[in-house]
User: Fold Elongin-C from Thamnidium elegans.
Amino acid sequence: MISKIIARSTRLARPTNALRRGGHGTPSYNEPGGYLFSEKVRVKEDWENIYYFGMGGGFLAMAVALYYKPDTSVVSWAKKEAEKSLKEKGITLDDSEYVKLISSDGFEFVIHREAAIRSGTIKNMLCGPVQFRESLDNEITFRDIRANILEIVCRYLYYKWQYEGSTTEIPEFKVEPEVVLETLMTADFLEC
Assistant:
C-alpha cells in the first residue's frame, strides 16, 4: 500500500510537457521584437490621411468659430443695458459718488457712495485709514455673496440711508423667508 502511494506521488511530482505548457501545446504568442505590430516600416492605410485632415480641420474650424462667437450672455447684456440707463441719467461709473458692488456670480450693482457707507465693512474699505484697492477703484468684489443676496443688501442700504434719523414711523423692510438666514449672515459680515 505504501509503495503504491510513493509510486503515485513520484509520478505526480515529475513534470511533464503537458503540465509545463498548461496542456495547450507549444506557445502561441509572438516574441516581442521591439516594433508595434511587428512592423519595421510604418505603412499608412488609405483612410488615415482623410481622418487626420478631417479631424484636424474640424478642430481648427471649431476653435475659430468659438473665438469669433458673439457674446450673448445675460450678464453682458444686463451690463450694457445698465450702462445705457446710467448714461441716459447722466451718471458715469467713474464718478467717485457711486460704488460698484460685484457679486460672486458676476452681477454688478452700482449704488450711491452715501448708501454704501451705511455698511461698516464697506465704509472701512472705502474710507478707512488704510488705502484699500477698493477705495481707489470704487469697486468691491464679494467672492462669497450671491447676486440675489447682494441685491437685498443694496436695497437695505438705501432703505437705511433714507430712514436714518427719521422721526416718522419707519416701514418694515421685507425679506423673503427662503433667504432670511443667508441675508442675516451677509448683513452680519457687512455690519449693516
